[in-house]
Write a structure and sequence with these properties.
Largest sheet of chain A: 5 strands, mixed
Helix content of chain B: 55-70%
Number of strands of chain A: 10
CATH superfamily of the largest domain in chain B: Cytochrome c oxidase-like, subunit I domain
Order of helices and strands of chain A: HHHEEEHEEEEEEEHHHHHHH
Oligomer: heterodimer
CATH topology of the largest domain in chain B: Cytochrome C Oxidase, Chain A
Structural class of chain B: mainly alpha
Strand content of chain A: 15-25%
Shape of chain A: elongated
Distance between the termini of chain A: 80 Å
Structural class of chain A: alpha+beta
Number of domains of chain B: 2
CATH class of the largest domain in chain B: Mainly Alpha
Number of helices of chain B: 19
Distance between the termini of chain B: 15 Å
Chain lengths: 382, 528
């Protein structure tokens, strides 16, 4: 009797938990996978619930028997031990039954795996590149082709250091979101610039490692417009916890507008870059710009004061390389240094590189007085 | 009592060994070495545990309070390495050293001097790991799986870690060869393989797994070392290598490794449950076959750790099916334990409590294992707190609980004194409560989307992280109680009789006095 009540209690609490899960599903659930926003995510969600039920039934079955035995077959109750220790038929049954249950579990999973891997005939293709520690996106094909930008954490440092109250989307907000149209099959191609990262958006049911030197792909079709947040899911160094992914799904019309705004901005930027290459900047202009670039790309490792972290990230303040020939300095920034955390930064614009290198050569105790122009960078590229 | 040499020709042997510190440095006695393994692993358990407390303290609230991200990564990395290689594995070898010769009626381990050497390598390796926190750049920070290219970026700490792994691997291989040789050659006459105690069987199979996979780990860390310092490009795409190759080699070691840490627990539990049920183990031969099947299958499932690395659909399906298949022999074991308890005459002393707790929580870990095996679900939960919860259910409430069960079970035989039963039960119930408080909520965190190995998290994860941290602090404190119980038992426990547990049937209880003499079974026992 008491074992029955244990089983009932377990069942009731499981049901309670289950219903609280579905009640919470309207928002971001605290107990379960986020509310699915794609066919694949829906499949995953349903299979997970279905497996939980199977596990719960087996659990109650096995431990119902065990706890009945624990309650009744006690020495303190004077229960005398039986002496059986073998039964081939029972052994065969409890080998075969689990096999059948596993087949039942594997069947729907197999169908989903095959669907997940089918990246053929997409409506558009986006390349996502993992950097330490941000994402770069290039729209390669389909509406929006040619758009390209970086996407970095936009949570202010003060919130992380507990100097300011934390915002609603603390650590899950970026400066530039990946924007895609609703209902279109989006193929995401992944690679990385330095170490392995993983691109994960739970509501869309996709996670794929981004591996330096290799290309991987995956896909999703978002069902409803909205903003879906995820994070890098593969340990990628110091700021692994600070490279979120934010996907904004738009209606077709809105998306078209976004695309044209992006493309015209990009055109302006290209024109500007051409102008910049041929412009001579003053030391002060470059220093001012360089300080911003440094804060965005370099300060995470080399620290705002240029001291680095002894043993892990070298100091730039007083560094021989930074105070040495300009060409060597440009080379290491553009191409990185093999087998160290210094990854290539060739993806930055000529002006940004010129500015940051100028800044580094004249900041802190460094006082070379060198002015590196965008044209110098352009010459040394390739 | 003919098997005990003491009665026949005095205690002469006991006087041969040096005293003081030299006794421990030069000893070739399996009991001394077993004791050293156990104390060493207990010490490392507290080092690894301290790191865990640091991790949980940082995660108590969102924001960075205690550990800067780089140091946080060093903590998680070394917590994993120290717990796996410093605490759990040496503890099982300690049990093997003490118990295998006594359970098969052998006088000692087959290679007594090598036994000494394989122990004394461990403190060297452990020092390398601990010292690495204080070298420039700090300890390795690329996770206990040290995937390149991240691990090629690290500093001196990574090199120290690589050497530590080499040394630990050498120690494990020597220990395993010793165990295999002892079991195959030194059983008492009449003890056929299929009459061996279950603990001995599980260790025999584990030792084969170790000999199979430890060289693979040594190979892969060597490749990492040459990539770091000698210009090779095994794992560097720019030089024609492949970072994913590392993951394949690492997990070819890594997956059997998790069974290396669980099979001896199965063995301990299979000794404890029949003893306290006062009924023979149900389905002995199917238990042996199930253990062997788990070991063999474990070599064909490694890529289930890599479902998100991007593998062809056939690969994903193969590794999903193979992984799910492991549930069958594992299920057989659980059913057999249940059938052993069924209609037994059970009592619930501390070893039995830990064993039942083991089955209960290990099954939860097994279920989440099946869920992780399903590729589509794994895509969502891979590298999240769900996985953290899963493997702590099998490694803490699995391996560690079984180690506690074994420790309470055999402590009276080892020390000749009883531990405090009331405190033992407190230890169990507190561990049980705080363990679940720490790790059960992590399932929810993982499902809701919290990645692992992050020092700071979004606000919706705050509540459960606080619960989990409180649980962890409680669990850590509870383990101090265990140390007290052990010391109290050695110092002032009541004298224990020869057969402490009336249901015990193995040789150390039936043929040896308590405490077990320094030299036992110099003449093999006579088996019926």
């Amino acid at each position: 009797m008491s074992s029955k009540s244990v089983a009932t209690l377990a069942g009731v609490s499981a049901l309670a938990l289950y219903s609280s899960m579905s009640m919470a599903a309207g928002e971001q659930s605290k107990y379960n996978l986020p509310e699915p926003q794609s066919v694949i995510a829906q499949d995953i969600y349903d299979q997970h619930i279905w497996l939980m039920w199977i596990c719960l039934v087996i659990f109650i079955g096995v431990f119902g028997v065990m706890f009945y035995s624990i309650l009744k077959h006690r020495k303190s109750l004077g229960y005398k031990a039986a002496n059986f220790h073998h039964s081939t038929s029972v052994e065969i049954i409890w080998t075969i039954v689990p096999c059948i249950i596993l087949v039942v579990m594997a069947w729907p999973a197999t169908k989903t795996v095959i669907a997940m891997k089918d990246t053929s005939s997409p409506d558009m293709t986006i390349k996502a590149t993992g950097y330490q520690w941000m994402w770069g996106y290039d729209y390669l094909q389909g509406e929006g082709e040619g758009i390209s930008f970086f996407s970095k954490l936009s949570t202010p440092r003060d919130q992380i250091q507990n100097k300011a109250p934390k915002g609603k989307n603390y650590l899950l907000e970026v400066d530039n979101r990946v924007v895609v149209p609703v209902g279109k099959k989006v193929r995401v191609i992944l690679t990385a610039n330095d170490v392995i990262h993983a691109w994960w958006v739970p509501a869309l049911g996709i996670k794929q490692d981004a591996i330096p030197g290799f290309i991987r792909d995956t896909w999703f079709t978002a069902d409803t417009p909205g903003i879906y947040r995820g994070q890098c899911a593969e340990l990628c160094g110091k700021d692994h916890g600070y490279m979120p992914i934010v996907v904004e799904v738009m209606e077709e019309g809105d998306y078209a507008q976004w695309v044209s705004a992006q493309l015209s901005a990009a055109e302006e930027a290209t024109e500007q870059a051409e102008v910049d290459v041929n412009t001579e900047f003053t030391l002060d202009e470059l220093n001012a710009k360089g300080e911003q670039v440094y804060a965005a790309h370099c300060a995470a490792c080399h620290q705002p004061n240029g001291q680095g972290i002894p043993g892990a990230f070298s100091a730039l303040d007083g560094s021989e390389l930074v105070n040495g020939p300009v060409a060597g300095h440009i080379d290491i920034v553009i191409n990185g240094k093999a087998n160290t955390a210094m990854t290539p930064f060739g993806h930055l614009s000529d002006l940004d590189l010129a500015a940051v290198i100028t800044y580094e050569r004249n900041a802190w105790s460094n006082d070379t007085g060198d002015v590196v122009q965008p044209s110098d960078i352009n010459e040394l590229r390739n | 009592m003919a098997a005990v040499h003491g009665d026949a020709h005095g205690h002469g042997h006991d006087d041969h060994h040096p005293s003081g510190i030299m006794r421990w440095i030069t000893t070739t006695n399996h009991k001394d070495i077993g004791t050293m393994y156990l104390w060493f692993s207990l010490a490392m358990f507290f080092v690894g545990g301290t790191l865990a407390m640091g991790i949980r303290a940082e995660l108590y609230q969102p924001g960075i309070q205690i550990l800067e991200p780089e140091l946080f990564n060093q903590f998680t990395t070394l917590h994993g390495l120290i717990m796996v290689f410093g605490a759990i594995m040496p503890a099982f070898v300690g049990f093997a050293n003490w118990q295998i010769p006594m359970m098969i009626g052998a006088p000692d381990m087959a290679f007594a001097r090598m036994n000494n050497w394989s122990f004394w390598l461990l403190p060297v390796a452990a020092s390398l790991l601990v010292v690495s926190f204080f070298v420039p750049g700090g300890a390795a920070a690329g996770g206990w799986t040290f995937y390149p290219p991240l691990s090629t970026q690290g500093g001196l700490g990574v090199d120290l870690m690589i050497f530590a792994v080499h040394i630990l691997g050498a120690s494990s291989i020597m220990g395993s060869i010793n165990i295999i040789t002892t079991i195959l050659n030194m059983r008492a006459p009449g003890m056929t393989l299929m009459k061996m105690p279950m603990f001995v069987w599980t260790w025999l199979i584990t030792a084969y797994l170790l000999v199979l996979v430890m060289p693979v780990l040594a190979g892969t860390v060597t490749m990492l070392l040459t990539d770091r310092h000698f210009g090779t490009s095994f794992f560097n795409a720019a030089g024609g290598g492949d970072p994913v190759l590392f993951q394949h080699i690492f997990w070819f070691f890594g997956h059997p490794e998790v069974y290396i840490m669980i099979l001896p627990s199965f063995g301990i539990v299979s000794e404890v449950i029949p003893t306290f049920s006062r009924k023979p183990l149900f389905g002995y031969s199917s238990m042996v076959y199930a253990t062997a099947s788990i070991a063999i299958l474990s070599c064909f499932v490694w890529a289930h750790h890599m479902f998100t690395s991007g593998m062809p659909v056939v690969g994903q399906l193969f590794f999903m099916y193979a992984t799910m298949l492991i549930a069958v022999p594992t299920g057989v074991k659980v059913f057999n334990w249940t059938a052993t308890m069924w209609r037994g005459s059970m009592s619930f002393e501390t070893p039995m409590l830990f064993s039942v707790g083991f089955i209960f929580l290990f099954v939860i870990g097994g279920f989440s294992g099946v869920i992780c095996a399903i590729v589509p679900i794994d895509i969502q939960v891979q590298d999240t707190y769900y996985v953290i919860a899963h493997f702590h259910y099998v490694l803490v409430s699995g391996s560690l609980f079984a180690l506690f069960a074994g420790a309470y079970y055999w402590l009276p035989k080892w020390t000749g004194r009883m531990y405090n039963e009331t405190l033992g039960k407190w230890h169990f119930w507190l561990s049980m409560f705080f363990f679940n408080l720490t790790f059960f909520v992590q399932h929810f965190l993982g499902l809701a989307g919290m990645p692992r190995r992050i020092p700071d998290y979004a606000l919706q994860f705050a509540d459960f992280n606080m619960v989990s941290s409180l649980g962890a602090f409680g669990f850590g404190m509870t383990q101090v109680l265990f140390v007290y119980i052990v010391i109290n038992c050695i110092r002032s426990g009541e004298k224990a009789p020869q057969k402490v547990w009336d249901g015990a049937t193995t040789l150390e209880w039936t043929h040896l006095p308590t405490p077990a003499p320094y030299h036992s079974f110099e003449k093999p026992p006579v088996l019926k």
